[in-house]
Design brief:
Layout (H helix, E strand, L loop, with lengths): L1 H19 L8 H7 L1 H7 L18 H12 L9 H5 L3 H13 L9 H13 L10 H4 L19 H13 L11 H4 L4 H12 L3
Bound molecules: heme C (HEC) (2 copies).
């Protein structure tokens, strides 16, 4: 099962790498910093948002940030607060902003001890009976993700944001995940499981 998942992941990664090279302007972090003032209000000047329902961007892979900004701009992902922020961004702006936030250091969180052990079990082993794939296969043992495959880093992300993201994948409100990779997983998860894994992720580093 895990073996099969890994094969799928590797195959998917290869597709992403081979199709992803041509695009993308070269990002300049310094230029990105100059353009990031408007983002700071919600995501924090260094990409560590104060409001836990808004995602941290600090230390996130530039490739993943750029994909999300392009998705918001192209209306493949939508959010009442975020969508309008991406509308006016050029390809160069997206590359520069992604380079800037990727270079910042993500702040650490702390997992709720009561939830973390159930969360750790799911993250590391999935749930075979329910067919939930282990998160570790794509997001890595420390939550570092995989920049070439655009698998986001999750370590230290705010638990309430992770919980919202999982519920959005589950309901289909968020559907910009390639090959339904996240929707297929989230649809099998209960509220309790989502809460536990979100808490574990917030303390992961
Ligand atoms: C008014 C508040 C607000 C502002 C200003 C804002 N954002 Fe956001 N942003 C959000 C919210 C809220 C989300 C989460 C949307 C969701 O829940 O799906 C988000 C999500 C994102 C994501 C996806 C992160 C992930 O982990 O998937 C990126 C990337 C992003 N914003 C970049 C930016 C950049 C770059 C700017 C400045 C040009 C910016 N944002 C300005 C509120 C804001
Ligand atoms: C087969 C690979 C794969 C597996 C397994 C996987 N993920 Fe993901 N995950 C992804 C991809 C790809 C994305 C980015 C989707 C996109 O482009 O928007 C993602 C995105 C996410 C996000 C949104 C991050 C953000 O910043 O908005 C969360 C949260 C998440 N995954 C949690 C999990 C959890 C929890 C598990 C295990 C229960 C898991 N993932 C298992 C591939 C995977």
């Amino acid at each position: 099962m895990i073996y099969k998942t890994l094969i799928t992941v590797i195959a998917l990664s290869m597709t992403v790498i081979s199709t992803g090279v041509s695009a993308a302007a070269e990002g300049n972090a310094k230029a990105g910093k100059a353009k990031s003032g408007v983002c700071a209000g919600c995501h924090g000047a260094d990409g560590n948002s104060a409001n836990p329902t808004w995602p941290k961007l600090a230390g996130q892979h530039a490739s993943y940030i750029a994909k999300q900004l392009a998705d918001f701009k192209g209306k493949k992902r939508s959010d009442p607060l975020m969508s309008s922020q991406a509308t006016g961004l050029s390809e160069q702006d997206i590359a520069d902003l992604s380079a800037y936030f990727a270079k910042q250091t993500g702040s650490q969180g702390a997992a709720d001890e009561k939830l973390a052990s159930a969360g750790a079990k799911l993250y590391r082993g999935g749930n075979k009976k329910k067919g939930i794939a282990a998160c570790i296969a794509c997001h890595g043992p420390t939550g570092a993700g995989n920049p070439a495959a655009k698998f986001p880093g999750l370590s230290g992300q705010h638990a309430p944001y992770v919980e919202k993201a999982m519920k959005d994948f589950r309901s289909g409100a968020r559907s910009n995940d390639m090959n339904s990779m996240m929707r297929n997983i989230a649809e099998k998860m209960s509220d309790k499981e989502i809460k536990a894994v979100a808490s574990y992720i917030s303390g992961l580093h």
